[in-house]
Amino acid sequence: MVSTVAQKRLFHEYKNLSTNPPEGITAGPVSEDDMFYWEALIQGPEETPFEGGVFAAELKFPRDYPLSPPTMKFIGGGIWHPNVYPNGTVCISILHPPGDDPNHYEHASERWSPIQSVEKILISVMSMLAEPNDESPANVEAAKMWRERRPEYEAKVRDEVKKGLGL
Amino acid sequence: MTDDEPSLNIPSLLTLAVVSYFVLRWFLNRDDNSAAGGRGRGRGNVVDPASVAQIAQMFPQMNTRDIMWDLQRNGGSVPATTERILTGRGLETPPPSFQPQVPIAPTTIPVAQTASAASVSKADGQDLISRYNLSAKASSPSTEDEPETPSKTAWSQNKDERQRLLQKRRDDMILAARRKMMQKDQGNTQ
């Protein structure tokens, strides 16, 4: 019964994202047989080193979605970014459940709640690409580079962008 | 004495009606409750404090007592209560007789996945072209005149058709980005 609520909700979100997709975002289940596993493509925001790139990520939804948030992980090369773990997992406040704030710097309103959506997550991730959050580095190396050697960071990101497109 | 009979009968009939009304109501209520409580949460004011806390955290504006009342009536189903709040129906105010037994413990829900993903499972160093099998399309002469805007709305009543549309949008997005990047590179070298 729990999973029907989740499935219905996910299907509804899938439909909305398909009929009215936000700029630079494509997302949906890999196969409708499993509504709990999605793949999304996000365009790199303009006027950032990610510009021109397309990034693929997988979204895994829990059975009690939308009570709990999905997890999101970049695939196919990962992403060089302070808030993305080296294995591609995205660390951003909207993906954290409301009760879970070990560091006490996130406001409850920024975190996951059932009134959020896949679309909001993807848009948040897009703006995260443009503006890394220095407070909670998931990739310490990338965070350090971003802070101290910005040109090197940007060059590395541009390089990854090209690699991701097979160039 | 025949005069006394009616005066005795009417009150007793009334009493009988009132009593049977309450008995019936009790009976129906009991049935409702036990049907709803089919998930193992028996009758009585037993509501899982964790569920209450979970909902209260999501909707801080909601009255805890209302949440408990709704949970108790739907058999302790968090999704059902959440659904109800989200659809804007709101929660009913419980009758004054409703005395929840559980103290509102400030339980924080134990959440397992606190970025446990730090475990280094090396990201597969695969680019999008090979991942989505686009090498054939990517290497084909770049059709310059192809419209860059992806097909507008992509929704169909047919499941397979939907799948195909999604895949097409995905492929188009990657290929368009690749074409653009190549053009930019050529522009830089010239």
How far apart are the first and last residues' alpha carbons of chain A, in Å?
A: 47 Å
Class by SSE composition of chain A:
alpha+beta
Strand content of chain B: under 5%
Overall shape of chain A: it is globular
Spatial strand sequence of the major β-sheet of chain A = 1-2-3-4
The helicity of chain B comes to 40-55%
Percent in helix of chain A = 25-40%
Oligomer class: heterodimer
Series of H and E elements of chain B:
HHHHHHH
**In terms of per-residue confidence, which ranges of chain B show pLDDT below 50 for 5 or more consecutive residues?**
35-43, 104-123, 143-150
Topology, number of strands of chain B: 0
Indicate the mean pLDDT of chain A: 89
Q: Give the radius of gyration of chain A.
A: 16 Å
- The separation of the N and C termini of chain B measures 123 Å
The major sheet of chain B is characterized as: none
Number of strands of chain A: 4
Textual characterization of the structure:
The complex is a heterodimer of chains A (167) and B (190). With 167 residues, chain A is of the alpha+beta class. Chain A has helices spanning 2-19, 118-130, 140-148, 150-164; strands at 25-29, 37-43, 54-60, 71-75. In chain A, strands 1-2-3-4 form a four-stranded antiparallel beta sheet. In chain A, helix 3 (140-148) packs across helix 4. Chain A is globular and about 50 Å long. Chain A starts with a helix and ends with a helix. Chain B is an all-alpha fold and 190 residues long. Helix content of chain B is 54%, strand content 0%. Chain B is built from seven helices and no strands. Classes of the chains: A alpha+beta (167), B mainly alpha (190). Chains A and B meet through helix 1, strand 2, strand 4 and helix 4 of A and helix 2, helix 4, helix 5 and helix 7 of B.
